[in-house]
Methionine ABC transporter ATP-binding protein
Amino acid sequence: MIELRNITKVYKTKNGELTAVDNVSLSIEKGEIYGIIGYSGAGKSTMIRLLNGLEKPTTGSVLVNREEISAISGGKLRAARHKISMIFQHFNLLWSRTVEENIAFPLEIAGMSKQERTKRVAELIDLVGLTGRGKAYPSQLSGGQKQRVGIARALANNPEVLLCDEATSALDPETTDSILELLLDINKRLGLTIVLITHEMHVIRKICHRVAVMEAGKVVETGKVLDVFQNP
Ligand code: ADP
Ligand code: ADP
């Protein structure tokens, strides 16, 4: 589903060059929940930006569904990015719009008719457990509910990959668990491939099938979660 082949990302800085991602190769299967864990500065955010085509690797290639997204740009890249969706640590909701309007936003951009949008939004609201909250504004929701809106919006156009950027880092432990359970449920029901980056071991242990551990731009270990994080 996703393949990173010998990816290196070098940033030019005031003091010279900084290698944020250093010769990383990974492959992620369709339907898998794959975690990338590491401390701050390890290169996780850079990996996410490479995966969604927002940045190009300095060398190496990124393939999503056999399409080399690191080699295309413009309209072709925008089309390829429709398959890739994202959720964020701070949710990135539109604050002047209701839950329904936030979720309808990507459908509107995709050109869906009002009637179809209404139906699809209702389905998504039910899917993420926000039934009855469609008319609320983000400011009236808890953190967990805001992330549920983020998830519904991310799923609106039936993506094949969901990228989660520290998606539970702003939430308390109980809410974190409920959001992880929702992601697990969506993965099972829709067969959606999920890639998540986090600095929290608990998140990886709870839902990931496989994990890559990053340190200073390098992947230092990969494998099944149970093998990588064995209990002593
Ligand atoms: P993480 O998400 O694991 O904290 P990042 O990918 O944000 O790691 O950063 C990896 C390294 O790359 C850090 O040293 C960071 O300062 C550097 N870096 C990230 N983005 C840029 C950028 N746009 N320009 C220069 N350096 C960057
Ligand atoms: P947190 O995720 O830390 O709880 P908030 O939910 O308050 O933070 O805000 C999430 C994001 O929305 C932040 O990036 C913030 O800057 C932005 N934001 C907060 N309030 C508004 C607002 N009234 N209008 C537009 N953007 C807002």
Notes: The chain has a mean pLDDT of 95.
